[in-house]
Amino acid sequence: MSCGTIFFIVVAPSLTTHPSNLTIDEGEGATFQCVATGNPDPKITWINNGKIVATGETLSFKANRTNSGEYSCLADNGFDAIVNASAYLNVLCKSENIITVKSQSNDPRQSLSELAAREVRCYQGVFIRVSKDVISN
């Protein structure tokens, strides 16, 4: 009877595919990929705003404005260091949700000043744009 030696080689996780930044319109699908190698096989965990949002190599969901932010994938196989990578998701307002706000003030410059700060913000899926005809001579 002979005794054999069994070796178990531990290999720290390494990312072979990193997630990429995305800019999409509201309502479209967002998909991030993160692939890791190692021995044992690493487990992939997705984090957004400090919370676990999914596990596995692919993170996919239908996006809305509140989903904008950083998404990180962490690869861990229980040995050595945990490796991670991040990508940013920028969700834009739908173009069909653009409305134009016209001046309601007797002083168009005041209306423009008050409204200009809102020009790049999306409120409940509505983009507010200041009309070019707010100021008149």
What do these coordinates show?
With 137 residues, the protein is mainly β. The chain has 2 domains: 11-92, Sandwich (Immunoglobulin-like), CATH 2.60.40.10; 95-130, no CATH class. 7% of the residues lie in helices and 48% in strands. The chain contains 1 helix and 12 strands; from the N terminus they run E-E-E-E-E-E-E-E-E-E-H-E-E. The chain has one helix at 108-116; strands at 11-17, 22-25, 29-33, 35-39, 43-48, 51-55, 58-62, 69-76, 83-92, 98-101, 122-123, 126-130. A 5-stranded mixed β-sheet has the order 2-9-8-5-6, with no helix packed on it. Strands 10-12-11 form a 3-stranded mixed β-sheet. The protein has a two-stranded antiparallel sheet with strand order 1-4. The longest helix is centred in the last third of the chain and has 9 residues, at 108-116. The chain is elongated. Mean pLDDT is 80; it is low at 117-121 and 123-127.
Give the overall form. Answer: elongated
**Overall pLDDT metric:** 80
Distance from N terminus to C terminus (CA atoms, Å) equals 103 Å
Classified in CATH, the superfamily of the largest domain is Immunoglobulins
What kind of sheet is the major sheet? Answer: 5 strands, mixed
Uncertain runs with pLDDT below 50, 5 residues or more?
117-121, 123-127
- Please tally the helical runs, counting DSSP H or I stretches of 4 or more residues: 1
CATH class of the largest domain: Mainly Beta
Major β-sheet strand ordering: 2-9-8-5-6
Tell me the Rg in angstroms: 24 Å
Q: Mind telling me which CATH architecture of the largest domain this is?
A: Sandwich
Instruction: Domain count, please report it.
Output: 2
CATH topology of the largest domain: Immunoglobulin-like
Count of DSSP E strands? 12
H/E element string?
EEEEEEEEEEHEE
Q: Residue share in helices?
A: under 10%
- Secondary-structure-derived class: mainly beta
Approximate strand percentage: over 45%
